[in-house]
Amino acid sequence: MAEIELVNVQKTYPGRKEGPPAVDDLSYTIGDGQFVSLLGPSGCGKSTTLNMIAGLEDVTSGEILIDGQRVDDLDADKRDLAFVFQDYALYPHMNVYENIAFGLRMRKVPKPEIDQRVHDAARRLDIEHVLRDKPRRLSGGQRQRVALARAIARRPAVFLFDEPLSNLDALLRDQTRSELKLLHAELGATSVYVTHDQEEAMTLSDRIVVMSRGKLEQYGTPYEIYHRPATDFVASFVGKPRMNLLPARRGGAGRYDVAGSGLGVELPLSQPEVRVGLRPEECALRDAAPGDAHGTVKVIEPLGNASDVIVDLGQALFTVRVPGFSSVRVGDRVQVDTSSARLHAFDVETGRRLVD
Amino acid sequence: MSATTAPRVDTSAGSPRPPGPRPRRRRRLGTVGHRVLVALLLVYLLAPFVWMLVYSLYPSSALQQARPDLDPSLLTGASYARLLSDTSFLVPMANSAVVGISTTIICMVLGSACAYAFARYRFRGRSTLLLGMLTVQAIPVIVLAVPLFILLRAFGLYDRLPGLIVTYTAFILPLVVWMLVGFFDEIPPSLERAARIDGCNRLQIMVKIAFPLAAPGLAATAILAFITSWSDFFLAKVLTSTSASTLPVKTAAFQGLFAMDYTSAATAGVITAVPVLVLALVAQKWIIRGLVEGAVKG
Do B188 and A56 count as a contact with CB atoms less than 8 A apart? Predict the structure, then answer.
């Protein structure tokens, strides 16, 4: 059990001093026993952050504490954590048993205990029948399980995962994701999980750290991240299809109009210009008389249980997710109904959230 | 239902089969062609060796006539018995073994550590150093022969085994480093990071993870280092005279000014080639894996 605290953590790579730091002034606390995902696009610094927590990369400045103890100057093996790598990182010259046992041997765990722990972990992950096989003989899913078993057998205070599901096919990924959640519920160890897949982050995590360009965008529960995105980046990154983010000008008292469309929303703000955010699944479409229309249907993407209808508002495109197969057709003039949508508004300069 | 009852569409109707043999037959012809070529190449490569073997096993009188007499009853190991009991042959042979084994060990110990550093650390001057080592390889040995002779004599190493070992190490080490950098580069860095999490220090990562994984490469490189130092003639000829003379120099000495002892020369040639052959055969699986893995991701 462990609480991880990052205090003003920064990472700059030597020779790349001109650009922004790879990780810039991160401060947050990962609670004991929590499952926290680091979510963001490629190159946002999430893996670097994980590596710094693991001790695989040095911290340029700032501190990392585990249970109140500073660990950023400790070697990776002194931090009581296990790491599951994206490519599994199984030792090809050792069989599965040896792979799982290696970390325990290095820590001089007595032989009978190693044997018991290896078999326990293998049983838990259903890989007992491949213990004598070399990793190259295993399928991707089995390798994944061996990597997990290696982590579990160590019984660490912290589990670190670096996109562990990204090399699996879609079906296996969903299955393993559920198993991971179950495993975390059973073990209860603090877990930090790096992913660029928002679905993984949302389904697995107690809390999510959203990062962009080395900076922390938001740290919150999946509910907060989805319903109260702190920045326009979080708003556009989390949610599928993406949130509609449209520039809007203050029309009258509390009314903001989306340029060139006749679409307007009520917002208790005073800024002359904001970015309005509307989730596609919270909006609806209505047939409109030629004079009342907000825009024209441009594309319809049927998904089976729902359809994404992309409406051309004149100066911007607006996506609406409607249930089932859409009754509208390409070229129809429509009105966008935002009456039941939660309104989001962001500062045009800073991108920060403006409404509660 | 419609899928099962639908008439089959003849997709080939619009595109007639190209002229010439059918694909399977063409493939078989290709295989046969390859085999013939490989057989020809083998004959071309092996013929001199086989002829050398024949020369070492038959009395020279049987071979030095218009139609060589290859009657199996004439086969004899006398030449081997003579050479392998002759001190003037056994000493160069031992010298070659000492030089070859020592050079290989030194090159592998220094080269693997050096190559690992090149493969895993990014430091100032890394590329320049690597390129510099290759540049040394590009200088013809003959250019360096005289300076080397002067240097070794000045250090009291002329006609001494340590002199030869140092010289061969200097020539072979850059090649060893170059080859091994490629093999270490192939090892995914995540394996070493996993080992760090598992509690290995740098040395343990090298010994427990990197070296076992690069074993085919290490074997192939070691054999190359041994073969190069074991069979070198030119430097051994220039840098030794009598006491540190090696097998290739001794073999060449069978060629006299006016006559040549073909049988002894061929026997010495076979004896020189045998350790190399044995090594290559024993380690052939590793050598092939080593050479292939350098180019193709395993």
Answer: no
Residues from chain B that touch A109, judged by Cβ atoms under 8 A, are none
The predicted model scores a pTM of 0.79
Q: Looking at the DSSP assignment, which residues form a beta bridge with residue A7?
A: A63
The answer to whether the CB atoms of B193 and A56 lie below 8 A apart is yes
Which residues in chain B are contacts of A87 at CB distance < 8 A? 188, 190
Please, which contacts does B78-81 make with residues 24 or more away whose CB atoms are closer than 8 Å?
B79/B263, B79/B264, B79/B266, B79/B267, B80/B56, B80/B267, B80/B271
What does each of the 356 residues of chain A score in pLDDT, given as a tens digit? 689 999 999 999 877 666 788 999 999 999 999 999 999 999 899 999 999 999 999 999 999 999 999 998 899 988 989 999 999 999 999 999 999 999 999 999 999 999 999 999 999 888 999 999 999 889 888 998 999 999 999 999 999 999 999 888 888 888 889 888 998 998 889 999 999 999 999 999 999 999 999 999 999 999 999 999 999 999 999 998 999 999 999 887 788 988 777 888 888 888 899 999 999 999 999 887 777 778 899 999 999 999 999 999 888 899 999 999 988 899 999 999 998 899 999 999 999 999 87
Q: What ipTM goes with this model?
A: 0.84
CATH architecture of the domain A4-236 equals 3-Layer(aba) Sandwich (3.40)
Which residues on B lie below 8 Å from A53 (Cβ)?
A: none
Phi, psi of B153 (to 5 degrees): -65, -40
CB nearest B198 (choices: A87, A93, A103): A103
- Given a contact cutoff of 8 angstroms between Cβ atoms, the answer to whether B220 and A101 are in contact is no
| Domains present along chain B, CATH in parentheses | 23-74 (no CATH), 82-293 (1.10.3720.10)
Judged by DSSP in three states, B132 sits in: helix
Fold of A240-347: OB fold (Dihydrolipoamide Acetyltransferase, E2P) (2.40.50)
